[in-house]
Specification:
The complex is a heterodimer of chains A (about 450) and B (about 250).
Chain A lengths: L1 H16 L1 H29 L4 E7 L4 H11 L4 E5 L7 H10 L5 E5 L3 H17 L8 H4 L4 E4 L5 H43 L1 H18 L10 H4 L9 H15 L2 H13 L2 H6 L5 H33 L11 H25 L3 H18 L11 H6 L4 H13 L9 H27 L2
Chain B lengths: L4 E10 L9 E9 L3 E5 L6 H8 L7 E6 L2 E2 L4 H7 E4 L11 H11 L4 H14 L15 H13 L5 E5 L7 H13 L6 E6 L2 H7 L2 E6 L2 E6 L1 H8 L4 H9 L6
Parallel strand pairs in B: 3-8, 3-9, 6-7, 7-8
Antiparallel strand pairs in B: 1-2, 1-4, 4-5, 9-10
Helix pairs in contact in B: 3-4, 5-6
The chains are: A mainly alpha (about 450), B alpha/beta (about 250).
Chain lengths: ~450, ~250
């Protein structure tokens, strides 16, 4: 035990004095997390993955305008701000705010919206009942719910917002029609029954007609909003903080292979390893000490980057990192990711011969695995072929496990496959490293 | 009555994978307690391989060797407790201070607490680096590094010290200090196997020398006896007579 502790201490002191190594292991990931979170937060806003900022100008100030306001505000994906100033230049002010990007969408509910909609619906219903000829009212033809977009908002997102608004308008229309029909249908039936069957029959039918009115006039119809559909956790994609904090944490943990493999190669080349192996100490203690020292560094990296996600990023305007309550799963993932990274460091240290090789092969292989594994660009944003290839990246396994817990509230069971994969990766690295370690000793 | 054997090697043989010629070829060597044995040979003669074999780093293809009666093949852990290896390279951690290096290697030898501190102090004093003990090795001169390299091999008071060219590339003062200190070690109970290129060093401090060439020990005995036997005026002349003047690398 004393020998393994001595080895851990020696590794930590060496690393502490390697200022460049510390910058790579701690400052680089913190910088990457901050920059990438801020950049991606902006991109996600542009494509509508975060709450869309909507400026609403309600010039109607009546029932339908308020219902429209409520419907917009109840959507989980919209953050609605009402424009207080409703004076003559209000529409221009809204346009300017949207053009400047302060709001991504501007919606103007024109004056007289309720009256015109109701009038139009009444005519539609009367026409359907066959009582009145449908005529073209110039006022209702000019009725327009105006939507303005920030010029930076992309086409697909515009279409999706427009579709949602159209859907909302249709619901309003349908609701208004149902209200009208709920009053009209029982009235028409009652009139027919009275004229055909007499007042006694109407009396018997009255409770049924009341029930019909109540069913047709069911306001609950309105509450079936799209927010219920989007609240399905399995359809959620991570926001920029949820994506970047675990992504760059996994990336930085794997970067410990550079000082780890480099240190091991140096020991091999300057004869220190030979001196160590001539001492009464097992190679397992020497390698175990290295692994434990770098595992501590990995755990510290996780702590530092999560702290940045929870405290610093919200100050810079992104959402706050929420880790949830699945601490056993998070601990399990962290342990296997650290184990995978340290085992890869040992493998490179045994396979490679110079520090230069380690400082080239190590980062290069990690950057490739990171790109494939969705560290730099989220896997869900990749083409299908790349999504399939991403399954081969151990960094991708780590990230996907973290996302499972942080975004989808998964537990130990749901991250099992990724954890087992990382564990097998570690075992493979250790076995190959062990074989090469002893075969290289035989070669001098 | 002769002193007990510290090293006894019999027909020790080692060929590296992929190499046609053996690095150590059927070597027999006995070193007795209190001896300072110099193993001399040109580059690639097999000196370092011989040291690696007897320090348990390499396994011989055939033959056997024992240190203080313990077989290196069957009891390597016991052997490692009583030997000290000073490799040819500066096998130290440049980012650590001399004291930290000594502390780390001392703990691996099983030293703890006050005993470790005392041994570190003695070793630093022995190599004249007490005042620079808390300075990082990376800032040391070549001679200072060599002295600490040697001090680490002596931390646990080994019964058998293996020195693989410990004075390569250092200044005259450091070399002189190392040789003076080494000459006293056998009297304190440490037997030494010393490999070197420098014949004058061997002539100065070794009680017995062996000349190794192409993996085979071609001559061994006291420097005086070898000079008389080879009809040479110095060990350098004798060495060239026995190993030839052609370049080896």
């Amino acid at each position: 035990m004393a020998k393994i502790l001595a080895t851990i201490l020696k590794e930590l002191v060496q690393l502490w004095r390697d200022k460049t190594g510390l910058l790579v292991l701690f400052l680089m990931p913190v910088f990457l997390v901050i920059v990438m979170s801020l950049v991606q937060a902006n991109i996600l806003q542009m494509v509508g993955e975060t709450k869309t900022r909507v400026l609403l100008l309600d010039q109607d100030n009546s029932t339908l305008g308020r219902k429209m306001d409520r419907a917009l505000s109840s959507s989980a994906n919209l953050r609605v701000t009402r424009q207080e100033d409703q004076g003559a230049g209000a529409a221009e002010e809204l346009l300017e705010a949207v053009n400047q990007g302060t709001y991504q969408v501007g919606v103007v509910i024109p004056s007289g919206f309720t009256t015109l909609v109701r009038k139009g619906i009444k005519k539609d219903v009367s026409h359907a009942w066959g009582g009145q000829e449908k005529e073209n009212d110039p006022a209702s033809r000019s009725l327009e719910l105006r939507v303005h977009f920030d010029p930076a908002v992309r086409g697909a997102f515009r279409k999706s917002v427009l579709a949602s608004l159209e859907n909302m308008v249709l619901r309003l229309k349908a609701s208004q029609k149902m209200e009208l029909l709920a009053r009209r249908i029982p009235r028409e039936i009652a009139a027919s029954v009275r004229s055909e069957l007499g007042p006694e029959a109407l009396q018997e039918l009255s409770p049924a007609l009341m029930e019909m009115k109540s069913s047709l006039d069911n306001p609950e119809l309105f509450r079936l909003g799209e927010s219920e559909i989007s609240s399905d956790p399995y359809r959620q994609t991570p926001n920029s903080v949820q994506q970047n904090v675990p992504a760059w944490t996994v990336f930085s943990i794997f970067f410990i292979v550079v000082p780890m493999a480099g240190g091991f190669i140096k020991e091999k080349n300057d004869g220190t390893l030979h001196r160590l192996l001539s001492m009464p100490v097992s190679p397992l203690v020497l390698i175990g000490g290295k692994i434990l020292a770098y595992a501590l560094i990995g755990i510290l990296q996780i702590g530092v980057i999560c702290l940045v996600g929870m405290t610093l990023l919200p100050l810079l305007g992104t959402s706050q990192l929420q880790l949830g309550n699945a601490y056993p799963a998070l601990t399990c993932i962290s342990v296997v990711v650290v184990l995978a990274a340290t085992s890869y460091g040992i493998l490179l240290g045994t396979l490679l011969n110079t520090y230069e090789q380690a400082s080239t092969v190590g980062p290069l292989s990690i950057v490739i695995a990171a790109a494939i594994g969705g560290i730099m660009v989220p896997v869900y944003a990749m083409p299908e072929t790349m999504q399939a290839i991403s399954l081969a990246s151990p960094l991708g396994w780590g990230l996907s496990a973290y996302l499972e817990v942080i975004v989808r509230e998964g537990g130990l069971y749901s991250v099992g496959p990724q954890c087992v994969g990382l564990l097998l990766f570690s075992v493979f690295n250790f076995v190959v490293a062990w074989i090469f370690f002893f075969s290289s000793l035989r070669k001098k | 009555m002769s002193s007990p054997c510290v090293l006894q090697a019999e027909a020790l043989h080692k060929t590296y994978p992929g190499s046609a010629a053996p690095a150590v070829d059927q070597c027999d060597l006995t070193i007795r307690e209190g001896e300072l044995f110099g193993l001399l040979g040109p580059n690639g003669a097999g000196k370092t391989t011989f040291v690696s074999l007897v320090s348990t780093l390499l396994k011989p293809d055939s033959g056997r060797a024992s240190i203080c009666g313990m077989d290196i093949g069957t009891r390597p852990d016991k052997v490692r407790n009583i030997i000290g290896l000073v490799p040819q390279n500066i096998a130290l951690y440049a980012e650590l201070t001399a004291r930290e290096n000594l502390g780390y290697f001392g703990r691996l030898y099983g030293l703890r607490g006050g005993k470790l501190k005392e041994r570190i102090r003695q070793c630093l004093e022995w190599v004249g680096l007490e005042d620079r003990a808390d300075q990082r090795i990376g800032t040391y001169s070549g001679g200072m590094k060599r002295r600490i390299n040697l001090a680490i091999g002596l931390l646990h008071n080994p019964r058998f010290l293996l020195l693989d060219e410990p004075t390569v590339g250092i200044d005259a003062q450091s070399r002189n200090l190392i040789l003076e200190k080494l000459a006293f070690l056998p009297q304190r109970g440490t037997t030494i196997l010393y490999t070197t290129h420098y014949m004058e060093e061997a002539e100065k401090i070794c009680t017995r020398v062996g000349i190794i060439d192409r993996g085979h020990i071609v001559a061994q005995g006291s420097p005086e006896a070898l000079l008389e036997q080879g009809d040479a005026s110095s060990l350098g002349d004798l060495f060239l007579n026995m190993t030839g003047k052609q370049l080896r690398d």
